[in-house]
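Q: For a teaching session next week I want to show students how multiple molecules come together into a single three-dimensional assembly. I've collected the sequence lines for a complex. Could you give me the predicted structure tokens for the whole thing so I can convert them for display?
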Amino acid sequence: MSNFLMRNWWKLLSGVLLLYAVIAGFTADIPLKPITEQTMRNLFYHVGMWFGMMAMLVTGFVYSLRYLTKFDQKEDVVAVEAVNVGLLFGFLGIFTGMIWATFTWGTPWVKDPKLNGAAVGLIIYLAYVVLRGSIEDVHKKAKVSAVFNIFAFVLWIVFVIILPRLAGDSLHPATGKNEIAVLPMHLDPSMRVVFYPAMIGWILLGFWIMTIRVRIRRIKLHLENQ
Amino acid sequence: MLLNEIKYLIEKEIKLELKQKYVLNGILLYLISTIFVTYLAFDRIIDVETWNSLFWIILLFVAVNGISKSFVQESPARHLYYYTIASPQAILLSKVLYNLLLMAILSSLSFILFLTLMGNAVVNVPLFLIALSLGSFGLASILTMMAAIASRASNNFSLMAILSFPIVLPLLTTLMKVSRTALVSDDWSGNWSFIIILLTINVTVIILAYLLFPYLWRD
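A: Of course. Below is the structure for the complete assembly, covering every listed component.
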């Protein structure tokens, strides 16, 4: 039993944190600002999707690097599942953002650097999935897609960094002047106590889903090889 | 040693290209007819914004078409032969340099055609030429790498486009920004940071390609 807890405490933590984020996120007193009003509560869920996506894509990148040093199938399985969960978070982030944007900006999609950066990220990783699908040989598939993943991730990060400079001001709060809205000094204390636990919860949930999917894929591989 | 290998490999590329002239002629005709179709589609003087977007989008499509053949033109058996006699870095750099040559021809031709057919919108010519040369280099190196990746998979052609378009976006959006200012004003001041961004992207791409290509080349 204690062994079980030792290995799985972070899953429990993820559940507790997210439960807290849902309850406190809807009930806490938050300062109401014009335009956003009560929709500001979406910050705890929408931004969490981006944190989750980023954590997953960084994991995918790291495991692609590891694959190219070891050529072990296990690394590739983690890389591809990290990307899959990253895509899931990415789509959820886009959808939660579109609903939010409809209420605050009056339209589901605006030409905003953050939206475009996210959308391009999704296109890149969908291309990664298509690339994997069009290679038959397992080892070749793992190697070529690892190379693409590393190349694409670096260029995507470059894109996300330079986009705000190219596009000027973003509609997202407090960007463009090197202020990041989710840093403590720009976030009200009453929101901080919900926001940071929620972000940790989402990232841990991402890893939880990923480990389950990795196990499923390993079992499938094992059965195929028998 | 490496330089020597690169020199011979580029010579080989050029000889091969001149031997099968129809490939080069095909891509040149593709460029000319695309620009002519655009010229006929816009029958009045177009504004700077449209000029700029059309120019770079056409150049992107032509570049993808021209470079996608880089690793599929020769047979796998011939690739195996090159594998035994040359280092992967030499292969990659020779392909990039050869494609850079191709891009130089394609981009200058499309610039000349745009000037004659779509009207001269460029105010700051040196800045535009800087953008054009940095863009050619960036497109050549990114697309060579994508062609190498796409050549390892089936349904090669559509895959080349799917992989390349989102990847070239950081380069392309910066290029469009720089060239748009070259179209509207003579002012250099705001552009140095973007030129530095372009240089950084080019250097990053070349380093990544140099490190990663050996994994693609070894089967």
